[in-house]
Specification:
Strand order of the largest sheet: 3-2-4-5-7-6-12
Radius of gyration: 20 Å
Number of helices: 13
Strand content: 15-25%
Number of strands: 14
Helix content: 25-40%
Structural class: alpha/beta
Oligomer: single chain
Low-confidence stretches: 1-25
Order of helices and strands: EHEHEHEHHEHEHEEHEEHEEHEHEHH
Length: 362
């Protein structure tokens, strides 16, 4: 692993790299979620030379998941920086760079490796704008591959999103599709505030249509907007229905698979993809809950004090007289993430989700 450190070029200096011949052209194209992130990073760096990348093995190697593959060759070692294996140092340096006018994008190699940087994120990054009374901004983006399902060893399959969503001063987002992965990262890089991007690593290889055109930008949902998700070209799963299923990140696909299975039995599920965890767009969830009268929330993180608890509380407070059943939560168990050979028993799947659907319908 590289321990090379380099000094980024000053903002406004000459020598911005041209668009790579390998980068996807504007307009619809099919990309994996991982390559959509690559395209977003490329296009953001091409548009603004103050954007730079920092992380372990992100340069010549292109990252563990090859998300930054080719970017160092295009933009140079001054803008795609292979850092030492020190997450606290990466984030601490990023805070200083942001205060000097840069837009650092920090990659945390795996979710379980973020904890050494936790103090920098919650004590410095999140609080710096308030501490400085608005006189300075810290536009740092922290990319964290999270969740399980890839057969990894200990500390490589965590779901730490609730820690960051609970921290005032941080924006926390999580794309579930390739299109959202591209545009949400581009939108995050335009924010004046620090943004934590939780990337569902088990979905890195899922493919989808990605439109990088100006028209697509105009039509893109807001960074913190939830959406009703539907399987492509499947008229059986439509707006409204018997049960609202709220999901985000890696479990959106689980919820859509459950919706298709339920449709075979004549039960319609409306899937809401939260997209943003902080701030939380509860309006879309509440509107769906009032239509269906029944809500199930699903996420990979442990149910205890997870994001589902906040969604359930909000829905109960605002939609109490519309509910036909208590809001149920489906997720991981209150145990350390298990060994890879038994992780399928830990992760919520369509079967466990449909069991909860049966219970709210009963």
């Amino acid at each position: 692993m590289s321990t090379t450190t380099t000094r980024p070029a000053a903002p406004g200096s000459a020598g911005a790299a041209p668009r790579s011949a390998q980068a996807p052209a504007a307009g619809p194209t099919t990309l994996t979620l991982a390559k959509a992130i690559t395209a977003a990073l490329h296009d953001a760096m091409a548009a603004d030379e103050k954007v730079l990348l920092m992380g372990e093995d992100i340069g010549r190697l292109g990252g563990v998941f090859r998300v930054t593959d080719g970017l160092q060759a295009t933009f140079g070692e001054d803008r795609v920086v292979d850092t030492p294996l020190a997450e606290a140092s990466i984030l601490g340096t990023a805070v200083g760079l942001a205060l000097r006018g840069y837009r650092p994008v920090c990659e945390i190699q795996f979710d379980g490796f973020v904890y050494p940087a936790f103090s920098q994120i919650v004590s410095q990054l999140a609080k710096m704008p308030a501490r400085l009374a608005g006189t300075a901004q810290v536009p740092v983006v922290v990319r964290i591959p999270y969740g399980g399902g890839i057969g990894a060893v200990e500390h490589h399959s965590e779901s730490p999103e609730a820690y960051f969503a609970h921290t005032a001063g941080l924006r926390v987002i999580t794309p579930a599709t390739a299109q959202d992965a591209y545009w949400m990262l581009r939108q995050a890089l335009a924010q004046p505030d620090p943004v934590v991007v939780m990337e569902p690593k088990r979905r890195y290889w899922d493919k989808g249509a990605v439109d990088t055109s100006a028209a697509a930008l105009a039509a893109a949902p807001g960074l913190h907007s939830a959406r009703v998700a539907r399987p492509v070209s499947d008229a059986r799963v439509r707006e409204g229905g018997a049960v609202t299923v709220v999901a985000y990140g890696p479990t959106v696909r689980v919820a859509l698979d459950a919706a298709l299975a339920a449709a075979e039995e004549g039960v319609e599920l409306e899937v809401v993809d939260l997209r943003s965890l902080s701030p939380l767009d509860v309006g879309v969830v509440e509107a769906s809950a009032r239509r269906t009268g029944r809500v199930v929330v699903v996420h990979e993180a442990p149910v205890f004090l997870g994001m589902g608890a906040e969604v359930a509380a909000r829905v109960t407070e605002s939609c109490f007289h519309s509910l036909e059943a208590p809001v149920l939560r489906v997720g991981g168990f209150a145990v350390p993430y298990p060994a890879a050979r038994i992780e399928e028993h830990y992760l919520p799947d369509a079967e466990r989700l449909l069991d909860a659907v049966d219970r709210v319908l009963a």
